[in-house]
Amino acid sequence: MKEVVRTFVPRFVVALLLSLGIAVACSVALGEVCAEPAGSDVVTTPREALLREKPSLSAPILARLPEGSRLTLVEPREQFLRVEAPGLPGGWIARDVVVTFAPGPGPTRDLVVIGRAFGRNGTYRRLAACLLQRASERLREAKTPDPEVEVLLGETVEGLTAAGAPFPKELGITEKNSASGKRAVYDGRAFQRALEMLSKDASGERGRGREQALAGALRAQYRERSTSLQGLMQESSAWLQIVEAADDPAVLRACAERAGDASLALGRYLLALGKLEDLGRLEERVRKASGRVQMLSLDTFDGRRLAARSAVLHAMRGNGTPAFPQEARIAGGARERLARIDGKLGALQLVVETRAGGTHDVQIRRNAVPILPVPGSLRVSPDGKSAAWVEVAGPSHLVAVMTSLDRDEPAREIAFLSTGRPWRDRELTHVVSSLSGFSKDGQRLGLQIDAWNVTPGPAPRYSVISVATGELLYETSKDVKSFQRLLQ
Predict the structure, then answer these.
(1) Residues 6 or more apart whose Cβ sits within 8 Å of residue 7
(2) CA–CA separation, 302 and 249 (whole Å)
(3) Which of 118, 269, 381, 411 meets the CB 3.0–4.6 Å disulfide criterion with 368?
(4) How many CB atoms lie within 10 A of CB 166?
(5) Is the pLDDT of residue 456 over 80?
């Protein structure tokens, strides 16, 4: 009669599986003594397991093994297993702190089942990653690699990076220095293996797995947002390509977020370099992608969020003219005053020209330094004493600034001057400001602000600011007529 070799799983592990709603496979022994053959995989389950010199709880300790350590079975006994591993002395380990998997396809499936279940629980994710890593190795050794297991492994290891080090070397997690300190990053090797396997599958029946693998590989490639123009162009295009082609709602939602983030940063670059046609094409591409996400993910806000980001790109373009030079002028009687933003990127200047009584005075306001103005946003007050424009202060922040044309003083963000609601809006993730213009006497300035974290509200907030003090005089999101009256 053929002997049935089963997977040994401690009772606490079985209890956890059941608590997670996972039916334990029939090949799993519920804490029984099994006829495990030599060469079986033995994996430690607690945070620390003790390797002892002899099969006794009082025997000297040879090593303290972290969770997920993989050993090889040499000899099984009722309460202990004799094990070995590269770099470790041979010794004994208690049965109740390990899971044991005999060779063969059945126990390999158990590795996947238990790894999948434990991967849903942050407390046991390290163990899950180690089990899935071994399942992946076994399948490849048996010449039966499975891309779904590779994707599951990759996603589990990604989740593990948030936990503290040390990490098993075979998982492909390394620590990188960043502005906030060291952070763990995954190299994406399981996703790459999945893509290689799926590239050989001509049936087209594993489209969802291919999408998940590709998204995972891109997450590994672009761990942080690119900072160069070329890098942002490649990153934005890569994420948008998935959004334009994927059918899996989960992949769409995750990639839409990354596509929007990279596209906003790219849009600011394109504006700064005067590539307005490219900026327009990027806006259109993001807008169409958002429509696809909304159509395929009806119950989520991800499509609306991406659509709002295309609106930010549209606002960056302003009136479609170059961001600099741009100018605005006001004439009254024999006096004319012009404000011009001119110069080179990184060294822009606000130039003030005054013509009166046959004289022509040109002055540079060296303290009022523009950074990257929205095209066509520059305004001069009717009394010729003030100027305002909208700055692209960051990829998702278009903020209004104001300065005096009579004094050489810094251009100041209106939100900082007015405090109140404009200042609170300034702290949100996305801020899109636009200028409604000055009042006829030049004493008040109107602006509207759309600000949001996830998706925009039903209407922008309209504000009236005192030019002299920056004080907030009036604000509303509904009574636009009163807002307009105050600017007359």
Answers:
(1) 25, 27, 28, 29, 34, 99, 100, 101, 102, 106, 107, 110
(2) 10
(3) 411
(4) 9
(5) yes
Distance CA(23)–CA(9), nearest Å, equals 13
Q: What is this structure's pTM?
A: 0.85
Cα distance between residue 369 and residue 413, in whole Å: 12
- Helix or strand run (H / E) with residue 15: helix 11-19
Q: CA-to-CA distance for 216 and 195, rounded, in angstroms?
A: 10
Alpha-carbon span 372 to 369, nearest angstrom: 10
Q: What is the pLDDT of residue 263?
A: 97
Residue carrying structure tokens 């330094």: 369
Residue 176: other Cβ atoms inside 10 A = 10
Q: What is the DSSP string of 43-101?
A: EE-SSEEEEESSSSTTSPEEEEEETT-EEEEEEE-SSEEEEEETTEEEEEEEGGGEEEE
Instruction: Give me the amino acid identity at 451.
Output: A
| Residue in the block written with tokens 């003219």 | 321
Whole-angstrom distance, CA of residue 257 vs CA of residue 192: 22
End-to-end CA distance of the chain: 98
Which residues, listed in sequence order, are joined to residue 403 by a DSSP beta bridge?
A: 387
- For residue 89, say if its preceding peptide bond is cis, omega within 30 degrees of 0: no
Please tell me whether residue 273 adopts helix, strand or coil conformation: coil
CA-closest candidate to residue 316, choices 387, 256, 264, 388: 264
3-state secondary structure at position 474: strand
- Asked, as a colleague might, if the bond just before 103 is cis with ω within 30 of 0, I would say no
Query: Residues 102-145: pLDDT tens digits?
Result: 999 999 999 999 999 999 888 899 999 999 999 999 999 999 99
Strand bridging mode 98-101 / 61-66: unpaired
pLDDT above 70 coverage of the chain, percent: 90
Q: Where are the alpha helices (DSSP H) in 222-301?
A: 229-245, 249-272, 276-296
